[in-house]
Write a structure and sequence with these properties.
By secondary structure, the chain is α/β, with parallel strands linked by helices. The strands form 10 sheets. Strands 16-15-12-10-11-18-19-27 form an 8-stranded mixed beta sheet, sandwiched between helices. The radius of gyration is 25 Å and the shape is globular. The site of 5'-O-[(S)-ethoxy(hydroxy)phosphoryl]adenosine (WTA) has 23 residues, from α11, β24, β28 and β29.
Amino acid sequence: MVYILNALTIKCLNKGKSIMVRDNNTYFPSSKWLENAHVNSIDKYNEIYEESIKDPDQFWTSVADRIDWYKRWDKVSDVDYNKAKISWYLNGKLNVSYNCIDRHVESGNGDKTAIIWEGNDPSEDKKYTYSELLIRVKKFANVLKSLGVKKGDRVCLYMQMIPELSIAMLACCRIGAVHSVVFGAFSADSLRDRINDSSCKILITQDTGVRGVKNNIPMKENADKALINTPSIDSVVVVKRTGVNIEMVDGRDVWWHEETINASEDCEPVEMDSEDPLFILYTSGSTGKPKGVLHTSGGYLVYASYTHEIIFDYKKNDVYWCTADIGWITGHSYIVYGPMSNGATTIMFEGVPNYPDFGRFWDVVDKHNVNQFYTAPTALRALMKEGNTWVESRNLSSLRILGTVGEPIKEPEWKWYNKIIGKENCPIVDTWWQTETGGILISPLPAATPTKPGSATLPFFGINPVLLSDEGEEIEGNNRQGLLALNTSWPGQMRTIYGDHKRFFDTYFSQFSGYYFTGDGAKRDKDGYYWITGRVDDVLNISGHRIGTAEVEGAIGKANGVAEAAVVGFPHDIKGQGIYAFVTLMTGIDSSEIILKSIISSVAKEIGPHAKPDKVQFAPALPKTRSGKIMRRILRKIAEKDVNSMGDISTLADPSVVESLIKGSIQV
Ligand code: WTA
């Protein structure tokens, strides 16, 4: 049972300080949980945590032994935040695909299911054992080689959630190619920019995709549009998913099934240095240009593998399901690399939570007897809204651990998750992390940490979060709020922004010397628990997807008749945050349905449908300071309908703009 205690007397240590958890809205892991868990008490957590902070090199040495190395490292870490220089397991040699597949086969687990693929349609599923996966990965790695892909080359993967996506990722790392997965909802323009930024040599895509009621997502057609302007692409490999007729370009495009059928089943994994790049994953920042977050091989794998085992209390026979899309970091670390390095059975789901009905998640849990279920708060909110009948008709008794990621989870959905899905029997791990961090940094451990709805609780082993003031001073003590930063490194940390190390330094290390700045705000409560309050920069979190305001503004600015746009977030029942766009039109142009449509379609074209504004307000002018900077603070207040506390508006060039914005009509 997970239950509430009124007066708490749990003693725990955090950062060497003795604290008491004494909140009356705290949930404790049940005694059933404490027995066999990897970390089975808060004392054990404290003990390991303390060791990990006291002697990080020793700690991360012992953790890295979980991975098979061709050659062990000479030095555990070499980190200088003042130069944005981060290396782990220096001169260690390994291969990630070997660690995720071969070694499980060699140790006699070849018949174990590696991937359960659950299709969009409930009648479609497939299972791949580790032995079968090995053959497929080797064959496809040989196809890549035959297309001229060499160690260090970049390969772009633009696919929906089909098994070939994981196979292609693992084939890339087998031969040392660097994959760059582009989320399947991104538009042709976004795909083009991402391909060009890292000069990808090959693109792998599929004919069309299916997702919910959409049964013809034009993946290849989008790719073709992108490829008009991508000089680095030599070949395109196309997976036949739906069999819909598509154009194939002679001399450039080949079919996956035709190339793999006769490919050799022999392909030795390439020996990679710990610091050789593993993948690039683009994410939004405060400027219009997405950042190619680069992760390397050794440290990333150690971190993804270890956090997956400990935070989800993963055990050998578990069936583990993370509902994320592999197009985001959560899918990379906690569908593919973390679980597979642990030899787990991992589910890959092509569909959506509401197709064919709102019980689909729970059907999949029952069908495959899922033990760990990891999803996003936005999905929970959407499902909670539909009522409990969708859940009550399902069994769900296989569930042991529930997880969330991507955005702050609020108390109502946390409690619903705990009661209705977990039957008050499954600890919830609210995991805070980022594309940049490679793996989870702040999270409860399921059998150790008392949880409070909405708090990501305590740092993982080896992680040292701090709160900073705007001036960069460390805020000591509990019951405090500030900017969330880390003052030490961990193996899963990103190493650079592809092709732009200066931007890497400027974005994360320049504001506060000696710290990695996360871009999030947080508070530390009286018990030392962390509560993430959200982004403090110009990044929005829409249904757990990171979208930069500057990217959306740039896209709106390209619509005909638009003079200027400013975008802010506003609270949204389901998405967590929605997109609110303030738009000024060129002189002589009036707002109209046509302009509104062209704004929406410009965003869909430039970025993708997931970035479309929820609200558009046409405004005669935007609130600007005398130096011409838009005061987003004011726009946020208007978007949040909190117009009585505008604060100081005297620095505006024209304060009367605010009045007209408040009065302004809103078009949805
Ligand atoms: C937010 C996703 C609150 C946060 C893994 C972070 C969260 C951004 C949580 C990273 C959480 C992620 N509670 N907020 N448990 N997890 N976030 O790069 O603002 O897509 O900076 O990585 O999501 O988003 P990203």
